[in-house]
Specification:
Number of strands: 5
Shape: rod-shaped
Oligomer: single chain
Largest sheet: 5 strands, mixed
Radius of gyration: 27 Å
Number of helices: 4
Distance between the termini: 97 Å
Structural class: alpha/beta
Length: 137
Amino acid sequence: MNRHSVQILTVVLLAGLLLHNTLDTARIYRKLTRLNKELTFIPPGKEFEGMQEELSGIEKVGFLTDKNMSPEKNDGVFLKAQYALTPIMLDLNNTDHQYVILDCVNYFHALDLMKKADTAPVFTNDYGKILASKSQP
């Protein structure tokens, strides 16, 4: 094989590789475009839906979570809850209020936090967020 044939073969192989990559990229782009169209916008704090009605007339409630609330790991759930429940003020990690909202990884953690706070559930929404009330003496 002479040098000219090797160069032509190299160009053909590179063109084939470029075509393959272009088609692959186009396929991925079409998939991502279709997925983005199917995604819907979820308003901030939607997971606290239904709590506003239950807390009608209440000014402050406690907010307990078993999630990491450090600035590096916090996913903004507390701020979303505060936004969704405005004008009610949320008091993070405070159980001194009559009502406490619990945002836990699972119900077992929530039950444990309720027991420690001496509260009982009064409302649970479709997103698993729990509104608990202090036990009456």
